[in-house]
Specification:
heterodimer, A: 294 residues, alpha/beta, Rossmann fold, Alpha-Beta Plaits, 2 domains, 6-stranded mixed β-sheet, 4-stranded antiparallel β-sheet, 14 strands, elongated, B: 377 residues, mainly alpha, 11 helices, flat
């Protein structure tokens, strides 16, 4: 449905990201993760034409969003806060969105506002932060767009609102086959809702992982040896140290899991125990390290 | 070009200024005309003639008909047009700056560019909305002002060809200013910068003449510049005036004087108006609409908040500003030259030139790289 083809963006002659390519299928939820300054927001903004990329293209159903911006009526970008609309009343926004998005479902929009107890007689600027985030989502889904791009939708919100938002996104996708591309620092949320995770590191797409496949690609284990971690394991491919407390090591195994298993077993550990693995473990292992934060 | 959604969004953003424009036109055209007409009526009743409008001052014989037609054009309409145009000029720069510059400071730019419209369409929609409101309110209220005169006892004194010329010129000139200011917004990074650059470019041509005259003066090493040299500078000033300050002419006096080279000594109805004078403001519209579209399409909005959005253009602006400040420094310091050291004036000039140039270079380098974020949380 949406194809990002070799997208490259530089600002002040410095590359923000380069050669980014991926695709999104209908009904898919894709999580975009990366450390601060990895270029996530710039990528999302470039995908919808807010920023001009240096090269590459973004095609929605085969049509370039740069050459034919009218195709963007099927794509809605929801920024981290709907500041641009804060001077609007709900009724003014409905009129505006009716004019912009031909499929905008006004009835559904008001139903959702009622469901989330969002007042209809106020300016958006008068909503609380959580209400603004919820409102932006409701507005985006009411356009009946085929793809919704969310930039940090739960950033700075309380647990209750976060839960509501996550639940609502999952419901909408399940019912209407809307595709979602969501960037977030909250890996637990991404893990909960996403089908696929894109990891950005230093302006490049480090990996694209289907979460269903993650368990077959990665394994988290806790091991204890007589002394410290044997040198053969310290520099081994596919074995990353997530944590060390005394002689207790938490390792993330990736790639050929059986081979990594055998290598550890050959060093005769005192303890070898498999632990439940989270996306955060993969994130720390793959994107960790000093000096990445811009 | 005319998109309802973009119109709605731009109207929401600028409605206070748009309505202020309508209000200014109502107050300064029909209402002002009615008040001035009443003053004229009282003058004529009391035979308290304004001496400026005597055609035969020596004999002090008043041709009342001629006095009336002169008063209607030179005072009633001229004051209305002048007042309207000065106020509209300020509002137009503000309108253009809110249309484009203000969007850059409050994330509205992100929202606008994420919508399913071409940037060209977005720019032209802004141009259309502003131009339509300015043109419509100006034409309607100018027409109302004439109706007030026409349906009064002064109706027969109207000369429609002159009246038509003034409204056409004023309108084209105002729209040219709006287009110019909107175009400035496509390469400046915020509302303050857009207003500043618009105003600077409007006074720059006159200012640069003053600075060049001083440079010229320093090099002639005398207290007087020769007539030929002045004639050259005056010529430059004249061209500069015509090309860049056409809005200064948006009153009857300026326009007619410009073409007839006289103002008071020929009857108003015998003065000639020339539509050739429209070429410069029309040229502005023809040049700055496509240039605005081009720059709006190419503009990198990640630089919003900076003085200039384009890195290459920023260097040109930087150089230009440094040179202007150096010239200003030279002018100011050379003025302190003692009279007996007049021959050494050039050394004083270059001390000021280099000092001010270097000082401004270092200050502006910091300023230009600063990101000014107004109205954003």
């Amino acid at each position: 449905m949406l194809e990002v083809q070799k997208l490259t963006k530089t600002i002040h002659n410095k590359s923000v990201f380069e050669d980014i390519s991926f695709s999104i299928e209908p009904g898919q939820i894709i999580g975009l993760v990366g450390r601060n300054g990895a270029g996530k927001t710039t990528l999302l903004k470039s995908m919808v034409g807010i920023f001009n990329p240096q090269s590459g293209d973004v095609k929605f159903e085969g049509v370039s969003v740069y050459d034919n911006p009218s195709i963007k009526k099927h794509i809605v970008f929801v920024p981290d806060s709907p500041e641009a609309l804060k001077s609007y009343t709900v009724k003014e926004i409905v009129k505006l969105y009716n004019d912009i998005y031909p499929q905008f479902d006004e009835r559904y929009f008001y139903e959702l506002l009622q469901r989330f107890s969002l007042s209809t007689n106020v300016k958006i600027g008068n909503y609380s932060k959580g209400m603004k985030a919820l409102f932006a989502l409701v507005l985006a889904f009411s356009t009946k767009a085929k793809l919704i791009i969310l930039d940090e939708p739960t950033d700075g919100l309380d647990v209750i609102v976060k839960k509501k938002i996550i639940q609502y996104i999952v419901e909408e996708v399940a019912e209407k086959q809307t595709s979602i591309l969501v960037s977030s620092h909250r890996l637990d949320e991404i893990e909960f809702i996403a089908d696929k995770v894109l990891m950005m590191k230093q302006g490049k797409l480090d990996s694209q992982t289907e979460l269903m496949d993650m368990k077959s690609h990665y394994k988290k284990v806790q091991v204890v040896f007589k002394k410290e971690l044997p040198p053969s394991l310290q520099n081994a491919n596919g074995i990353d140290v997530l944590n060390q407390t005394g002689r207790v090591y938490t390792l993330l195994l990736s790639g050929k899991l059986e081979k990594a298993n055998e290598m550890i077993q050959s060093e005769q550990p005192l303890l070898f125990e498999e632990l439940p693995m989270t996306l955060e473990d993969v994130f720390v292992s793959k994107l960790g390290g000093d000096g990445d934060v811009a | 070009m005319w998109n309802k959604a973009l119109f709605r969004k731009d109207y929401k953003q600028t409605k206070f200024i748009l309505w202020a424009i309508v209000l200014i036109c109502i107050l300064a055209l029909p209402l002002n005309t009615a008040v001035k007409l009443e003053q004229l009526r009282v003058e004529l009743e009391e035979e308290d003639y304004n001496k400026y409008y005597f055609l035969d001052e020596e004999s002090e014989i008043v041709d009342v008909d001629q006095y009336t037609v002169e008063s209607i054009y030179r005072r009633v309409l001229d004051s209305s047009i002048q007042l309207t145009n000065i106020l509209l000029f300020i509002m137009i720069v503000l309108l253009a700056s809110v249309m484009i510059g203000a969007e850059r400071g409050n994330k509205t730019n992100d929202f606008t560019f994420s919508l399913p419209f071409r940037r060209k369409q977005i720019f032209l929609s802004k141009w259309m909305l502003g131009s339509t409101v300015v043109a419509a309110s100006y034409i309607v209220n100018y027409f109302l002002a004439h109706c007030i005169i026409y349906f009064s006892e002064f109706g027969s004194y109207l000369h429609w060809d002159l009246s038509l010329y003034f409204v056409v010129y004023s309108l084209v000139a105002l729209l040219a200013m709006y287009t110019f200011s909107l175009c400035i917004g496509t390469f400046t990074g915020g509302v303050i910068y857009q207003i500043a650059v618009s105003v600077i470019f409007l006074i720059f041509p006159m200012g640069i003449i003053l600075l060049l005259a001083s440079l010229f003066d320093a090099h002639t090493a005398s207290s007087y510049v020769s007539w030929n040299e002045w004639a050259f500078l005056r010529g430059l000033e004249r061209v500069s005036y015509d090309i860049f300050l056409f809005q200064y002419n948006m009153n009857l006096q300026g326009l007619l004087y410009d073409f007839n080279h006289r103002w008071f000594d020929i009857p108003i109805q015998e003065m000639k108006a020339s539509y050739i004078q429209l070429l410069i403001p029309l040229g502005y519209i023809a040049a700055f609409v496509p240039l605005g579209v081009l720059l709006y399409e190419k503009g990198n909005i990640e630089h919003n908040g900076k003085f200039i959005l384009f890195d290459k253009l920023q260097s040109v602006f930087h150089l230009g500003m440094v040179v202007c400040f150096a010239l200003l420094g030279g002018m100011l310091v050379s003025d302190f030259t003692p009279y007996n050291l007049r021959e050494s004036r050039i050394y004083f000039y270059y001390a000021g030139f280099i000092g001010a140039g270097l000082l401004f270079y270092f200050i502006s380098r910091k300023l230009l790289n600063m990101k000014l974020q107004l109205f954003s949380k």
